[in-house]
């Protein structure tokens, strides 16, 4: 079931009144049944996966709580991680690894035709698996208390507003909220509904309106002018932002109406002035998950191990084989890889400080590479992660993008900030090309298409009406986001009834007038 | 109770604004110079009427009027399918004087674009047959248009009607030249089928073409079926001209005039399927020489 569909409106219309009528245990049970119904509407067979994942982590949690011996505790945690990653690996990455393996064998002249499995990706598996794993790891680290109530734990894993596309809420933030009995509060209804409406505006009016133009661009980029393709990638940057943050807004808003507080998942990411800021503003729940459960355990910015090199060099080695079309180019890519590795190792051995720096870069890179792969089983996602890892490393070198250049030119501060924002946005868009393209060939054709500057004119843009509509909607979004810095609309909605009524009515008018009502699925469902 | 009031106020204000906005937009649509607005207000009398999809916009009206001395009107639109074309032709006859000649580019039978059909929601206040067609293809959109009048104007058709609010769109034609990447990629194109290629719509498309021909004949309007030009190397990818000719004759008792290879200069095309103004003039000259406009 997706939020922007008629079945969901019927579901929520029945669910919410029942939810507030029932109390304590009965309400919790309703929440669980409702969540399973919501998920099962898409494909009831995969409900067993959610339930199995829930049961494993519930049982492991209980055992971890009783067990005092370090080695046994570690073993228990590994069981949970292996089970969760096993499901994820099988359903999400099996085809990818199999195809990659066959491709490498074929490239090496060995013909391999093993039977292929057509595996359907269960919606939301990456989200609930991470949420579930974070619980076990936190219990292992003794950061949280174990949850003994199975119904409560199962509801925490399957809570329908955020089950299929996040935000990934930590057990330490979410489980304690189940302790209190929720009562209906008007303030929550108002602010929650406001956020839900804003989410629908982003998804239905902006993301779905931009989608046809973007799809056309990436289907056959060779057929379009550079100006058309440039607009295509700008539109994609806003499509994915509005699609995903729209979902998060609806999820957070619904949860708020139901009495739960979720943290922000996006905070105007395209206003970031450097790449680390971007990752503090984009998909915050995943970034912070990766930081807490991957980057810091790897050593963070204080050290690390050479084992990390495995995650960087081996996939890059494979990538260079896929990407090249001849032995010569493979050798060139491999040579570059070897030279960079040798230079890095040489500098790291020079001093302790360099060693720490080197490990920090490696940890950054590993986190971004795995973050890229989390999004999808494809080399383009891996490369997207590689680009972002590279940006972060270069940024650590320079302080901030072109920081020295800015100081040299002595730009006024607002101009300097605007340039920083544009630089970050430019490189983010460059990475989006790989994220959106179905394969490397399309991504390269796309970038070449823009860089050629062939027919860089307004007249060469196909479907100018869609472009006009797109820019009007993006303009509205930016206007609200920029003015929100000054006015803080969420507070205004609470305080001023006139503002609240007018903003709700205007949003509804805009959604009716600009919305695309084809019940398009959210982009992040595929992840 | 007081807290419930604001929800009530939101709903009431939404509908007041929605109806008011819908009323203003309807007025604006009916005053536009966009082709369908002109048609529905009965301001589109002509001698020669054209019908087609985006390829039908190659019937470049200013040049045709220049070489024939006759008035023209074009009902073509991007991805316009045959069933919607038939409805628009019927509505044209309802609101305007009948033309002497109807020229149809039969490649409009290619596909059904549901989004486009529902986009014509804008003109449902003027046409029951159009309403029925939209209801048939997207019942939800039809009912949503009844619930929210602003939603009726949520389409590219409305945006175009506003763009052409005070200037005519009769001279619109692709103004670009096919790029080198496309020219070099033509060899990789798959075989192309002119006419309906989606099995689920084949019979409907021929039935709609037949109806269009019958309506024209019943109104004493001459009708000519044509296939307008394709990019020359792309013509070689088209595999079903013979079969299409048989089916068209079977359905309508009329042959079609094949101008698929009428324009040989690559600079006369915007892409594989659309002539630009240069190509359109060559195409029109050939049609004139063949007596299509007579």
Summarize the structure in words.
- The complex is a heterodimer of chains A (527) and B (294).
- With 527 residues, chain A is mostly helical.
- Helix content of chain A is 74%, strand content 0%.
- Chain A has 21 helices and no strands.
- Chain A has helices at residues 6-21, 24-43, 47-66, 70-107, 125-140, 150-158, 171-174, 186-219, 226-258, 275-281, 284-298, 308-323, 327-350, 352-375, 379-398, 403-409, 413-436, 440-451, 464-487, 489-495, 497-514.
- In chain A, helix 3 crosses helix 6, helix 8 runs parallel beside helix 21 and helix 9 packs across helix 17.
- The longest helix of chain A has 38 residues, at 70-107.
- The two termini of chain A are 16 Å apart.
- Chain B contains 14 helices and 5 strands.
- The longest helix of chain B is centred in the first third of the chain and has 30 residues, at 2-31.
- Chain B has a single domain (2-289), classed as Rossmann fold.
- Chain B has a 5-stranded parallel beta sheet with strand order 2-1-3-4-5, with helices on both faces.
- In chain B, helix 6 (128-137) packs across helix 7 (139-147).
- With 294 residues, chain B is α/β, with parallel strands linked by helices.
- The model of chain B has no long low-confidence stretch (mean pLDDT 89).
- Helices cover 51% and strands 7% of the residues of chain B.
- In chain B, helix 3 links the parallel strand 1 (48-51) and strand 2 (72-74).
